[in-house]
Amino acid sequence: MRKNRLVAVTAAASMTMALGACSSGAEAGDGDGGPATGEVRVWLVGTDTPDEARDYLKKTFEEQNEGSTLVIEEQAWDGLVDKYTTALAGSDAPDVVEVGNTQASAFTSNGYFSEITAEEFEELGGSDLLPGFVEAGDWEGAHYALPYYAGSRAVFYSPQLVDAEPPATLDEYVETAKGLYDEGKFSGVWWPGQDWYNALPFIWENGGYIAEQADDGTWEAGFSSEGGIAGLTQIQDLMLNASNAPKDGQETDLQVPFCEGKIGYLSAPTWIQWSINAPEEPETEDGVPGCASTYGGDLEAFALPGKDGGAAQVFAGGSNIAIAQKSEHRDLAYEALKIMLSDEYQSILAGIGLIPAKVSLAGEVPQDTSIGAAGVEAAANAKLTPATPKWADVEAQTVLQTQFTRLANGEDVEQVAADLDAEIESILNG
User: Fold this and answer.
1) What is the pTM of this model?
2) What percent of the chain is predicted at pLDDT more than 90?
3) Where does the signal peptide begin and end (predicted)?
4) I need a surface site. Which of 213, 274, 338, 421 has the fewest CB within 10 A?
5) Which burial class, exposed, middle or buried, applies to 80 when counting CB atoms under 10 A from its CB (0-12, 13-18, 19+)?
6) Rounded-to-integer distance, Cα 336 and Cα 346, Å
């Protein structure tokens, strides 16, 4: 199995779109679906798609489409938007592409993806597809990018380090993490300053919101709302009184401090279990050391608790999948897409702990461990960022990362909230 690294599935760069982008529509690059045979290029991002799924896709596609070949080209999350913008607007575009769920609308709204017709949508899963991810890939009432997989967040811990029952409420979670804290030595919870993904549940659970669209189409940000301030206050409390993480740190390679035995609670996408459970001595030079025989062998998880109990509303990371508008093999690309959304392929993804694109396959995620059960429980209550193509600009300009770093450094909560709202509204309404 491919060892999955934690990736920021919503990583974004500058969203300046090429002027040569073609208009939206279901037509393929040559207008008739492309040649009957040819090479289909599939761009997958990062290492979250396991080798078993990649092998299944290639073998099945080539068996079902005699005379054609399928090539998988792995891309990096860093700089993804800029690379896609150039490639999808050019004459050598790939055929099928994976994209972060919060990046999807930036491409759909600019005509980079081929429309999925109503008939195709039903054949690919229809109402069984994850609704939030369908919405993220829609534009002006049409489908362009469909769900690929979701990754809910859970709170990981080792009973060797935390001898306590999982907290029942969000307030109890905060107090327990603070009680575990030993300044400079042990973090009750690990919270790098730039980590905004784990901040959103605190905003939502306290009744706040990121941004909402008014009837006149304008956006209003909500970090300065009563619930937003309450959530930011709890976040800062954890950053200052429960975490030894760098004040300007990023949410990368979280398994490293965990494997050093310096963390009580680690809130992260469920696929980080594979990095924690990697061998202490990686098999490859670029592999990241895990702690399979120590804390990894005694790894537990629970769904972040909500304000009043139950699972909190957490951010749903994950990916969408789409056919490039300029694909020279639109019909063949669609055949590849069918395989990737088939029950067989999606069950492979579910088998390693990813939330499959189809609601009916959620039971395929192993739930015989606390990690699997926590992931499914959290996914059922997960939420997404605002559905606007300009949200990618918010990420690209590191608005949230910058302001949450200020929180981690102890700056005034209300001022940070006001600055967050002003910047977000300026971008979304610009």
Assistant:
1) 0.77
2) 70
3) 1-28
4) 213
5) buried
6) 13
